[in-house]
Amino acid sequence: MLRKLMEGVVEFREQMLPHYTERFRQLATGQSPDAFFITCADSRVVPDLLASALPGSLFTMRNIGNLVPPATVDGVSIGDLSEASGIEYAILVLKVSDIVVCGHSECGAMKAALRKERPSDVPNLNRWLCHAQTAAFRLEHEGALDKSLCVHDQLSQINVLVQLEHLASYPIVRESVSAGTLRLNGWWFDVASGQMYAYDRTKRSFELIDRDLIDRLVMS
């Protein structure tokens, strides 16, 4: 497997790097990404590929289940500081105008979150998945956004919305949204079809991203 990765590096240098030489030269002195993209660590979700994004366009944070531990009233994360640090850096230093939380189909974290009992040999993972429990509670008591999906995909969609709420628990996020300098966006990727969906608040559903949806959501 290491050989495959290293051969990929050589292939990039020989075939692709000439097309990006100037881009990397410009990026060497700093970055100014368009968005902060929070998504799952799942290998099937490739943000730059799916968004046709050039190097330097996305400031990306990945973890199991695309989870964002909420903050206290003082803006301090109740969980791992990595996510909170990424939020602060994206908003205060990079000054991104959009944050995207992107979930996906067949998410292992969502399947695990639905289990009543979990293996005892993964204590860190079990603690981490507590940040998906609000989504599981809502699915059970409020129902799915799309009942045609299997239950773990139903949870994955609701989880995106819950993590957006967790983001909004950070004062710097709320203040930036109120000032009109930041937008929060929920996306969901269907692995089998390769299609990306965005949450439409007016329809309370994830809609296929096409040119009509772009015009409607970006203008709203």
Automatic annotation (TrEMBL):
Catalytic activity: hydrogencarbonate + H(+) = CO2 + H2O
Function: Reversible hydration of carbon dioxide.
Keyword list, A-Z: Lyase, Metal-binding, Zinc
Family of this protein: Belongs to the beta-class carbonic anhydrase family.
Signal peptide: none
Transport is among the record's keywords: no
EC number assigned by the record: 4.2.1.1
UniProt cross-references to SMART domains, sorted A to Z: Pro_CA
Gene3D superfamilies membership: Carbonic anhydrase (3.40.1050.10)
CDD domains noted in UniProt: beta_CA_cladeB
Name of protein: Carbonic anhydrase
Top-level taxon in the UniProt lineage: Bacteria
Enzyme category, top tier: lyase
Matching Pfam families: Pro_CA
Keyword Zinc appears in the UniProt entry: yes
Cofactors, names only: Zn(2+)
